Amino acid sequence: MSFACLATRAAKPAAARVCALLLGLLMGGIAGCDAKSASNSRAADLVRGQRLLAQYQCGSCHTIPGVAAARGRLGPSLEAFGKRSYIAGHLPNGPDLLARWIAAPAALVPDTAMPSMGVSPADARHMAAYLGSLQ
To answer: Which of 57, 72, 122, 124 could form a disulfide with 61 if both were Cys (CB 3.0 to 4.6 A apart)?
Structure first.
């Protein structure tokens, strides 16, 4: 076997490692962009959710940190809502179920005192994202 043949064999694994490294960096950069975009999107959802909680006047009944004039005492305070295990004492707390609860509370707990406020499913998702962020 000649030296040139050995050099070619040695170069192939090195080239493969360089390609793998470049591909990894490229994919990491793309993933980083997606993570940043997702983070920006989540921040927008939180801001929008905060505004929607004010718009639908949830603060008439609830105290909600970060929502102007949300000092209601008829319903429970929503402080640290993201740490709670249950919604309305009945439903496991999670973003999807919380959004459904906000949009149609009586559909999930028929004897609830919480009124339906005409919240759309899309708005409810934003509101749930904000409430879930309250730690």
So the answer is: 72
* Alpha-carbon radius of gyration of the chain: 25
Which stretches within 1-135 are classed as H helix? Answer: 3-55, 95-103, 105-108, 121-133
The share of the chain scoring above pLDDT 90, in percent, equals: 66
SS3 state of residue 63: strand
Altogether, the residues listed in the chain come to a count of: 135
Q: Which domain holds residue 20?
A: 3-133
Query: Which backbone phi and psi does 2 adopt, to 5 degrees?
Result: -85, 165
Count of domains for the chain: 1
pLDDT digits (tens, 9 = 90+) for 52-77: 999 999 999 999 999 999 999 999 99
CA torsion 62-66-71-73 (nearest 10°) is 30
